[in-house]
Design brief:
Length: 299
Amino acid sequence: MLGSHVGLGGKEQFLGSVKEALSYGADTFMVYTGAPQNTRRKDLSEMRIPEAQELMQKSGIREFVVHAPYIVNLGNSVKPESFDFAVEFLREELHRAEVMGSRTVVLHPGSHVGEGEDAGIMQIIKGINLVLEADTKVHIALETMAGKGSEVGSTFAQLSRIYDGVLHNNKLRLCLDTCHLNDAGYDVKNDFEGVLAEMERYFPLNQVACIHLNDSKNEQGAAKDRHENIGFGTIGFDRLCAITKMKEFADTPIILETPYLSEVEGGKDRTFAPYREEIAMLRAGVFNPELWKAVVGNR
């Protein structure tokens, strides 16, 4: 399954999200339940969910994922009010995802804000244990992180420690981000099979609920987390395309989060979504910059 991040807003709300995904030729997608930079959310009754679900059924979209907003930080042990807010908001986000029809909420594990890896991991475990219950219907997919700043979750060992501490860890899953893995030091470009083998020291493959397919602006191990368009970064088209063809991930949502571009050659405004062109290239298995209206001029 191949798709991208899509927006949510305006009069059509979630229905518009599904229409956007279909306009890219996608058969899956990822959506935030509101702006990723804040926690303002529409009431579920205003989001046109039944119409969106009907369109997905007619169009053959069987699965989509929800991404929790960036500002949810379960790793904060310095400000109790921030931690408490993150717990409550994540609990509500799981409910919203369930009503919308998703099985998976992707979550950045959190940042230790200077208190160290051990403190951050323990706080994340505490937060997830306050959220997940035996009858929770939606999985939390912990995203692999680039290791920028005080981020927790840049190694499979760190993510495994979180799993080990969570009571209902059968409700946890993984989201592999190719850019983040590269920037964290894993050799995605030359040895993705080795990356998966390293992961399987801690997790079976069936724990991967989602893949974020992004090229990287940075060299391996840079710990910077800067996404690049498919084929224009240090990972390269061939490797990223090969990941989409792996039989192990045939039923896994593979989501593009690559940068928007300018519709005017050399322009600085980033208003053009590249996903239709990127999906077409990945499906064809051929890197063809001619499909892009303005990409080459912006490189």
